[in-house]
Amino acid sequence: MAPPAQSQRSPSPSQPSGKSEVSDLKLQLRQLAGSRAPGVDDSKRELFKKVISYMTIGIDVSSLFGEIVMCSAASDIVLKKMCYLYVGNYAKVNPDLALLTINFLQRDCKDEDPMIRGLALRSLCSLRVANLVEYLVGPLGSGLKDSNSYVRMVAVMGVLKLYHISASTCIDADFPAVLKHLLLNDPDTQVVANCLSALQEIWSLEATTSEEASRERETLLSKPIVYYLLNRIKEFSEWAQCLVLDLVAKYVPSDSNDIFDIMNLLEDRLQHANGAVVLASTKVFLQLTLSMTDVHQQVYERIKAPLLTLVSSGSPEQSYAVLSHLHLLVIRAPYIFSSDYKHFYCQYNEPSYVKKLKLEMLTAVANESNTYEIVTELCEYAANVDIPIARESIRAVGKIALQQYDVNAIVDRLLQFLEMEKDYVTAEALVLVKDLLRKYPQWSHDCIAVVGNISCKNIQEPKAKAALIWMLGEYSQDMHDAPYILEGLIENWDDEHSAEVRLHLLTAVMKCFFKRPPETQKALGAALAAGFADFHQDVHDRALFYYRLLQYNVTVAERVVNPPKQAVSVFADTQSSEIKDRIFDEFNSLSVVYQKPSYMFTDKEHRGLFEFSDELANLSIGAELADTGVPGHSVEANDKDLLLSTSEKEETRGPSNYDAYSAPSYDSSLVSIAASQTQSDLISSSTTVPGNAPHSSFAIDDLLGLGVSVTPSPAPAPAPPLKLNPKAVLDANSFQQKWRQLPISLTQEYSLSPQGVGALTIPQTLLRHMQSHSIHCIASGGQSPNFKFFFFAQKAEESSNFLVECIISTSSSKAQLKIKADDQSASQEFSSFFQSALSKFGLP
Amino acid sequence: MISQFFVLSQRGDNIVFRDYRGEVQRATAEIFFRKVKFWKEDGQEEAPPVFNVDGVNYFHVKVVGLMFVATTRVNLSPSFVFELLQRIARVIKDYLGVLNEDSLRRNFVLVYELLDEVIDFGYVQTTSTEVLKSYVFNEPIVVDAAHLSPLGPAALFMQGTKRIPGTAVTKSVVANDPTGRRREEIFVDIIEKISITFSSSGYILTSEIDGTIQMKSYLTGNPEIRLALNDDLSIGRGGQSVYDYRSSIGSGVVILDDCNFHESVRLDSFEADKTLALVPPDGEFPVMNYRMTQEFKPPFRINALIEEAGILKAEVILKVYAEFPSSITANTISLQMPLPKYTMRASFELEPGAVGQTTDFKEANKRLEWNLKKAIISYHGFYIVGGCEHTLRARLTFSQETHGNITKESGPVSLTFTIPMYNASKLQVKYLQITKKSGSYNPYRWVRYVTLSNSYVARL
Questions:
Q1: Does B338 contact chain A (CB < 8 Å)?
Q2: Where is coiled-coil annotated (chain A) (predicted)?
Q3: Which residues in chain B have Cβ-Cβ distances shorter than 8 Å to A160?
Q4: Which of A2, A238, A424, B366 is 20 to 30 A removed from A484 (C-alpha atoms)?
Q5: In this predicted model, what pLDDT tens digit does every residue of A3-16 receive, in sequence order?
Q6: Which residues of B touch A421 (CB under 8 A)?
Q7: Helix (H, G, I), strand (E, B) or coil at B315
């Protein structure tokens, strides 16, 4: 409820300051409180309305608490409701006064009118005063058993409210169990829906401390519950349907019949007028068919028309939300949408955030057959009055040119842009021509002819200027004026504010010098001198570097500065595929609209239910491990985050508000790779490296000759016949995928030997120990006394995987194991193998 | 679940503010308003409908100039929240009859009452106007509908045609009629929005009709209703391109690309006789939304031309042809055309005898405006009537020399209009049957059509 911040709010001139009005109201309420005169309820209503209107605009009326409560003893329901509203707003800051209301609320909870019972119970639970919880348990208990569904509906939400005030009171009263019973037995679907919401919230929060709760949370995803809810889905309100569909999207079907049953059942939900229902169903369809490529593609075809209808029928806000999702699908599977490109044409009256999405979609779906029409359309937008969109359109044309093989026509268009003589058009086009030349050097002749005509004076934007200068340097042999243009630019060195441009200028004049030395020598000297005097460190250093290089050997300098270049085949994607997959997994959420996975904009505790967000908060042993210098792959142990190898790149890219995330540090062998990646622009290669990281580090283990044997250690005492592949390979992504898809086949708790606990002071030793038993660690984290490891192993003869989550508490000397397996029948065997390996840990 | 819900006026005043979970600070309304008002991100000037500030997500929808806002820290489904906000606005409108700042302020206690029943602890309980009736006790204070600004589809029917009682659509679902008797009536509105782009040579590049069959029922006892649509209606499925015009030319068959239906609609006999059966809930709701890209005859053709006429001068010629029957009148027609940035002056020349047309050159954004709001054609009567044609000539003066391609610096021309009792798709409600036993029961039934422009554009 509203904290008492209202008093600090400076009232705007149009609003009353409140003080005198409030004392006036107080007086009037007092007079009415005891009165039984006819018509007194009407005057009370008027006064109450005034109080509530003050409350809304932010005037503090909490001083009227006593009077309001006194006045509401009457039976008028309108008055009661206003009183409840008021009490709910101020009880938290006036706990003593709140006690006053308990009495009449409790009495109302037993009223014969179910409306009053429900309302009173709702208000009682909304007081949010911790020391009053004892008064809640009784009324809630009877509310859950009430014969009227309205009261039960309110009571279920009441349980959730109680949980948030005092979790222990709620659990001790065994309310979750009652809710679970109602979930499966209540005839009223809204009661069922509320139970589902409440249980999801309670068990997700409880799961951080209780194994039982996390098991309960998983039973919500079990087949009987999911089927029970699905079979009644049409009885639910459209909002509750979304709730159920959300749950179903996380359900792991047992076989393909299961999948088709669900899809057939939900087929008509795609025709619902409520976009939320359609998108929630779409998510179910997409998630269920992930492993069936053909069907998955059919799903795309099937949802296309309904989504397009939603885009055009809803309010602008709704259509934006749906369009964002369509955008995601188009980017994932452009070929499916390539004949629908006309739907992505911009309309003149659309807001620019919509146009931007559409431009990206047009870029994605362009292929041999539609490029001409799409580019023609985009060229229309280039003259758009909305300048940011005009720019985006030109960039889109450029991107299409870069992804097509046949670029003739597009190059012509781009060159036409240069001739349009609009500043921003020229600027964007220059940048594009530069990129185009990097990919298709064969076009240099045509482009250079046009670019040569552009006067530097008309170009103000640093990016465009840098592009032009780059071309001047790169093609100085073909551009007659190049040395002189560069010279002119160098003369105005001090007026050039962008360091990027000055850097480019240095490099360009060097290149020009190698090609046309006599004409450029003077300019080069001037540029280097200006560079030495530059206040910008990078510019200064580059000038100095070039100078020394030239002094050392001109031929070497040319090889360094102007080596023969290979045409760029693919430009790096700005977003890694891991991030994209993450966003796809979070379909039908804000992640899609923001185009960021949820961990980048949401606090951990609000990550959503069933997010598999992990329990041991703030696990990070990164710093200590780096100190030990032991090779190994350690990342923060949140099993969704930790397996996502891109997370560390995000950290360097910009601040994320995910506070639970602490920057992971790598062992020395990886740090160098990571550092070189982030510093250079070689984004394209960086995506592959982290995925391989675990293996490369193992390889390093071997190379260093640390005495690690990679064959299974000879015959452990109760030698199980299970043979594991010592060189098993599983990349982080597949691990993550599998971990989410597979059910838990075994959960076990296991005691560690004291030696084992002792050895864990350096957690890395465990990884090596397990590896010697052909059990590989894919990620680890934690801090004494709690450690967490993810292991995997593979059967020797077949590619059947075992995945293990192992949480070790050194304080209790216990290890908790969760084992998931492709072949569930072997999991028991594997478990004993794992335990026997673990039991040897720390023994000499 | 959502954390807070509030409604802000255009000036940023809190009209209604409800905190459901107390996990987000109270100052959100101010943070939100400041952010929206001074939005500048990604080079865009308009705030998107949802954004994140310090971990709090702000969703908003604009309804009649008010902002309906929800906040949450959770990663919710955006379409869920937008649908919900729209629905809350509609429920409030159902109760108040008229939704605007004034009616909200006068009825805020009723609105709080509604909000408490619609959402509990951030979770939606019900948005059914009907279910809510049994929980909500405040009587609405009905605001006089006479001074309504013409907003929203309902208001469209109040202009231009006298056949429909203007106040009917602004009735509250709960307010008692002064006469003590409720009038039994039901409104079915077919609202179509046209998007079309003409190429410079007058060809149709893209066209689409987005339609809604909207219903508002004031029938007591919730009888079942049957709505029969065109017999030859078909809904396109399968792989054929939706832009394939050949199949449909001249056949008169209505082919929809796709459609969706309200929860209450039963489609048992839709395949057989194109009939929708439903028990309409109280209040306003869309029975069916549809989308059509089949070729249709556009109500207006536009011809636009800009030519240089000497140094620092150019001439613009705009022609509009109304291509619908002369029995139909269109109103509030307005043409807009962006002119080159260096345009200084524009002088206009209307056709001889033109009355009620206005022209304007908006200096600030270099835009030409031509309104035919009260166009009179001497022999046809008031308003633009089908079958007629209008021309505007404008002479422009520039402050600098043109760079050759003047057509690239201006346009496209956009047209906005409203045509009551007309729909371009030819989708029709053939009959509206109310099944109620009593023979004497014969409520008023209104079936109304209207066509609006969405993005109606001609390129130069």
A1: yes
A2: none
A3: 121
A4: A424
A5: 433 433 443 444 44
A6: 403
A7: strand
